[in-house]
Amino acid sequence: MSLLQERKYTCRVSSTLNRDTKQFGKKFMFDNRDETCWNSDQGSPQWISLEFTEITSVSGFSLQFQGGFAGKDCYVETDGTLKVLDFYPEDCNKVQYFYLKDRVHVKKIRIAFNSSTDFYGRITLYRLYP
Q: Is the dihedral of CA 51, 113, 87, 125 positive or negative?
């Protein structure tokens, strides 16, 4: 069972392509459907923030990008300020796993994409699993 099915949370994102949340909104990262995704608008950096209603234990996460629209030079921060991981995803369509050095107990976690493999800085993400 996914952590997001067990816990109540709020997700925020930096932007949505053309502000079209019906077609490219953040909810599509969590719907387990292959044909839907979150698309950011252009510009860097882009980010995803998860805020839980209670302290939650996190040891890693997985992401599935669309090739050509993957994050580059990325990091994870917790509770708004503490950077806990720098990571560098591949520019591909497969699910990629990233593990924190140590398990963290947090209310808020933020994944930031300082740049993108897309010339315009867009991110396309099909899945996010903490």
A: positive
